[in-house]
Amino acid sequence: MEPQGQPRPPTDYGAYVLEVLNEMTRRTSTIDQATLRHCLGLSSSYLVADTATNPTGGVVSWSAGFNRLVDVLVALHARGELELETVNAASKACSECWTVAGNWRGLDECREGVRRVAVRLKRLLDENGRTFGGERVYVP
Question: pTM score, two decimals?
């Protein structure tokens, strides 16, 4: 427990995601998509935490983490290894972050970052833009 009066260090989604990815690849050369889904599931919480604990750099740290995860998804897709469940988790994360950014004061600018991520994810979908590998994708 931290002594009273001592400020807590700011959260940093970018650093967290990097740490998870480094640990994952240090143990094996494969990407554990269940772990990626877990990280994606934390994105909206980190959006609030990063921006609340670091008003000047929180948007940047959150965006770095979210985009780094999408970079991994794009690479997995290029290798033919991306799972539908992971695409669904990314879609849900975008939806949750969009909602948070629209409902929390001062986070409106984050919506543009969510929009850019969503555009990148949409490129991974089948030609119809609604399925991945012939299966329907999570849509809020």
Answer: 0.93
